[in-house]
Amino acid sequence: MELVLAKGNSSSFVCLAVAELVKDAGLQVSFGSSTSLKVKSDVITGTFAVARYLAKVYPRFNLYGQTILEEAEVDHWLEYSLLHMTRVKPETLESVNKWLSTRTYLVSNGLTLADLAVFAQLKSSVVDGDAVPHLMRWFDFMSHNESIKEALGKIPQETEKSSKRKDGAIKGSKATPNSGLQTKMEEGGKFIELPGASEGNVVVRFPPEAGGYLHIGHAKAALLNQYYQLTWKGKLVMRFDDTNPEKEKVEFEKVILEDVAMLGIKPDIFSRTSDHFELIIKYAEDMIKGGLAFVDDTTQEEMARQREEREASKNRDNSFERNWQLWQEMVKGSEIGLKCCLRAKIDYASANGCLRDPTMFRCKIDVPHPHTGFKYKVYPIYDFACPIVDSVEGVTHALRTTEYHDRDPQYYWFIEKMGLRKVHVWEYSRLNLQNTVLSKRKLTWFVEQGLVDGWDDPRMPTVRGVLRRGMTVEGLKEFIIAQGSSRSVVMMEWDKLWAYNRKVIDPIVPRYTAIAQSDSVKLHLEGVQESKGTAQKHPKNKEVGLKDVFYSSLVLLEGEDASTLKQGDKITLINWGNAIITSVKRDEHGEVLHLEGKLMMEDTDYKNTIKLTWLAQSSLEGGEFTPTNLIHYDVLITKGVLKPDDNWKDYVNFDTKKEYITLGDPMLRSLKKGDIIQLQRRGYYICDAPYMPPSPYTFTASPCILISIPDGHTKTMQMGSAADSKGKSGAPKKNKAQEQPDPSQPAKKEPLPPSDELLSDQIVTQGQLVRQLKAEKKEKSVTDAEVKKLLDLKARYKEETGKDWTPPSSSRESTKVKPKLEPKEPKPASPSVQPLNEGESTQMKKQTRLGLEAQKEHQLSDWYSQVITRSEMIEYYDISGCYVLRPWSYNIWESIKDFFDSEIKKLGVVNCYFPIFVSKAALEREKEHIEDFAPEVAWVTKSGQSDLQEPIAIRPTSETVMYPAYARWIRSHRDLPLRLNQWCNVVRWEFKHPQPFLRTREFLWQEGHTAFATKPEAEAEALQIQDLYRRVYEDLLAIPVIPGKKTMKEKFAGSDYSLTVEGYISASGRGIQGATSHHLGQNFSKMFDIGFEDPDTAERVHVYQNSWGITTRTIGVMVLVHGDNKGLVLPPRVACIQVVIVPCGITAQTTTERKTKIYEYCQQFHDQLLAAGVRVHFDGRENYSPGWKFHDWELKGIPIRVDVGPREVLSGKFVAVFRDNGMKEELDVANGNTVVKQKLEEMQTRMFKNAQKELNDHVKVVMEWRNFVANLDNKNIIVAPFCLETACEDRIKKDSQRDEPSEPGGALMGAKALCIPFDPPKEAPPITADTKCIHCDRPAKKYTLFGRSY
User: Tens of pLDDT along 247-256?
Assistant: First the structure.
């Protein structure tokens, strides 16, 4: 197609913009006297006729709307732009402004020809921006569009006859094609004119350091530089300050460039300081030759002291020869050079510290520079490099914040002494925000300490962080613009920033509902039939669209709302209608249990009613609640304004994240990451992770994760919801846990971990020794040596804790409390505050927080997280879904590995290892041949800074890696059977809500892949492996499992059938898949052509294959099955330490002789048990009390604790405490070897029997559907007759979604078929021809195990 555009016709811009948008190589664009489009032999004339044709040829862009109604609206605006906007009148602009007041686009929810036509007429018009703010917002938004910007750049100069402009700016507003920034700048803060500036000759620069993400202070700097670039039609230099290789990272450069582009900033020049290293070194050497610089080998500490006391360095007057010699050592990076730095010889006694002979170069050899590698051994200091590069790159005005004021004389000194072109330094105030630190060093500390999840954490003041928290680019820009370039230093509140954002999002975000899961109350409405309707997503903006609303007789209300209601109250159910409360049922404590009411749809008087949000329980398709987690963040710094002498770490907030489990509107399932919504009566939220249906691997749904967006009205995140009076919706009640700490007081510090507390004690002891030596006036050399030890201990303490050591209070020992293992039930709050009794202290006692705070039966998710972290099984990693397996858990995996490895070797299986990487072609080959197999694959796309020619997958499983080799290795029946196994890791990027051990993106496993000549051989092995997996769980982990066969729906894609062992977690009432053994038949062998020549028939025959695997999920199952409210309970056979010996009864009055005897007794018993093959540990730590040790080992799950005190030493006995039941038993040391091993086996058996009883009690045989869901809701798994039809299995899952969830993805999840058990319960009657399926009328074929599952 050939597109010719009319010169001088504004409307032709519409077609040009369309051409830039579609970017079709077959569409050739040129300019002529009239607009036309040649399509083969046909010619279409007329600007809008061509535009309509192009819109229909490229329908995926929806430029002509998506419905007939939208097409009509587009036609209206095309006509309107010609009739009313060729000469713009105020009333025309006012009309368009009004139309855009609640819209982002003129038509629909995306760019259409309507927007392009109106933009084309306005781009050269004179407009008063103040009079039409919505139009200006829209115009600015259009100006950001890349296709529009590219089209503007291609308009010939003569096209716009009246203005001779092609920049797409509205005259009078000074808007620009890049961002429309200047109009807003002029509407915002005060902008200082640059001295000596002239149009077309201004060059400014934005020089970030790629040592972290851009924060909003950097955003202000970037936008100010852009403002002056556009105002003076000058140039903007984007330069990375990469003078420090230790901080510079390529990944940060990439993120910064993306952030700059996201802000709509387009630099004219891009550079790096490292591009000029040779020139900078030359200037440094010229200064050495000119006597303006010297090389100093003074130590860093001595140099700092000299600068503080204004003393000259001993090297200041070195000869040129000496300076040059030392400089060459620096350039070589020698041992001598590493001790030196190059300093400018300015004025060591200056009142300005920045002029006291500042450093110019330092030596670094350990870290390669990301762009120059190890080429250079010396690197310039930024303050020296900056004036050189500014001058060389033609910068005319260097914008810097006022905090650099003292460095300006240094900047100009370097310019003058090196004879460089002068650069104007212009100052503006830095962006200061309350409760915030913007120093990159301090922000890095938050990241490294794990107090935030990364640089884009919503709590971080980075551009990425605030955008992830719900800030819009438009809102951020408007806030920064409002600050202007004034030099006045102002401390801003975050509320003001979020208030700007609220103005942007409030008119356009949809409204939904979420109800607190743990505090909801059911309202039964008389006579209501289940149905579905629609309502506006935004009550004041119909353009936002419609949403489905489900109605039923059973409605959920907020518990706090329900508590205020009484019989006879008139309520309004938002988006439904009025109702009257007819009954309120309360318990003995006055808590509302249930409400009954009657709908009054005929009553439309909503003035004097209580407005309530609600959700209806519906069985209609699409009416299921969406599991929704609401995350609220608090400030990282508790004090609003930090004073110069404040230690900022004293005000770090360690409790900044609160997560609330809610039941969400069914429509929340459609949210995508980044969507912004408003939850009615809760506030604004942004979707951080969309709802994900149950994964084919984990069988668990992932909840929708919403992050609360502050609205600039409240200073605290609020979560409650209550009606405070009739006719008004009450403000959410502030959660006590979310109250702001007292900003005048330092934040509560986390208790020291044991290692840091021990170090603190060593400092105290060493300090006492030093004081004693000084008091006794010992020799100075002796005293100095001990003082050096004390200083080394303090330095080590600061390195490990990040803060200086401070002496503990004198009452430290008396304030220690025993660690609280189980949280007590909270007492009811008193109706009034009681005064303290005389003499009572208001100081809280120190808590070690060693034990668990969550209870397994009430807060399973929190309990699980606390158990695995506080018992030192795992540590969280900075990549979501990946975890560090600490020795305490990895040892369990080694025990499983050792057992299973030895058993499979008895079967003839041998170990091997195949690469972790899979080619794209191999992976796609599998995807094409296996129905429903869709691996969630992580891809490697880069090597260094270069893109790979073809992306490479990280293995999600190894069939495609191993089977091509099998095809090469197997040629004859003599090559069979081939039985290989590998112990390795796999990566499956398949979910949004990971759980350590249970659902992780990387996990360890073994995968066996075997090939046989005949099917019976392969099937026999599949059963053998399944039985080995049963033994892993039952013999090693003391966990009973149910062996069985997967249904056709649940089997591994590509297998003939799958065998499994299924476990049960009583705390959640859910089943869990333990391990699987798959008989693949000949499916894969045919796909990969793995075959051999049959010796009998001489024909080529394909092999029969199996694959089987078990993962580190086993550890998570063990924790969930055996753990209790005191911590882990380890089965003795897999415990890293089976017995721990703790000496007791040692006090301050215990003599050294008695203490020695106790320790020797313990050590002898330890050696005795060790020789007998018991894994034993003697806890001789003297810095912890026996009680502290008891709780520590109890938390870690040690099977047997041995207590030994003076009485046991005298009697030759020991006290054994068993972790599984807490029982104590006094036993003789003489036969301790035998009895301890016996007790360990008894405990292993006891743990298995207890778990078996728990399983048996919760496996229910159900023959009728009416009993199915009730048993499921009672945390049971169900054995039921089943027809084995996939369609029926789907209906069972759907129809068992009945109750509100007990946890995300919990009770709302329907029952799935866990397996067809080999041995159904004895109480299950035999299946006969008359036995019906549990759900349909078909004959039942097998008993099947159903349950909700992980």
Answer: 888 888 888 8
In the chain, count of helices (H) and strands (E)? Answer: 36, 54
**Of the candidates 904, 948, 574, which has an alpha carbon nearest to the alpha carbon of residue 729?**
574
CB-based contacts of 368, cutoff 8 Å, min separation 6: 245, 374
- Tokens, residue 304: 């700092």
Measured between its terminal Cα atoms, the distance across the chain in Å is 56
Express as a percent the part of the chain with pLDDT over 70: 86
CA separation for the pair 538, 449 (Å, rounded): 42
Of 974, 1089, 1057, 1067, which is closest to residue 1258 (Cα–Cα)? 1067
Q: What is the pLDDT of residue 38?
A: 84
Helices (H), 1032-1112: 1083-1088
Nearest partner of 238 among 213, 257, 219, 252, judged by Cα: 257
| Cβ-based neighbour number of residue 220 at 10 Å | 22
Nearest to 1189 by CA among 1142, 1231, 1249, 1259: 1142
In degrees, rounded to 5, the angle at the alpha carbon of residue 1067 between the alpha carbons of residues 1061 and 1070 is: 40
Which among 1036, 1013, 1185 is positioned nearest to 1090, based on CA atoms? 1013
Q: How many angstroms separate the Cα of 1239 from the Cα of each of 1040, 1123, 1165? A: 21, 20, 16
pTM, entire model:
0.46
Q: CB–CB of 1117/1063 below 8 Å? A: yes
Q: Show Cβ contacts of residue 753 under 8 Å, excluding neighbours closer than 6 positions.
A: none
Residue whose tokens read 């992050």: 707
* Most confident residue range from 183-192, 209-218, 1218-1227: 1218-1227
**CA–CA gap between residue 1089 and residue 1101 (Å, rounded):** 10
Q: Give dist(CA 930, CA 928) in Å, integer.
A: 6
- What pLDDT shows up at residue 747? 42
Kindly give, in sequence order, each residue whose CB lies less than 8 Å from that of residue 827, ignoring residues fewer than 6 positions away.
none
Q: What is the Cα–Cα distance from 65 to 61, expressed in whole angstroms?
A: 9
Could you identify the residue written with the tokens 């909003």? Answer: 216
Distance in angstroms (rounded) separating the CA atoms of residues 677 and 470: 10
Task: Give residue 1216's Cα distance to chain centre.
Answer: 44
CB atoms within 10 A of CB 879: 11
Mean pLDDT of 222-238: 87
Asked whether 389 and 411 are in contact (CB, 8 A), the reply is no
Phi-psi region of 416 (alpha: psi -120 to 50; beta: other; left: phi over 0): alpha
> For residues 477 and 223, is the Cβ–Cβ distance under 8 A?
yes
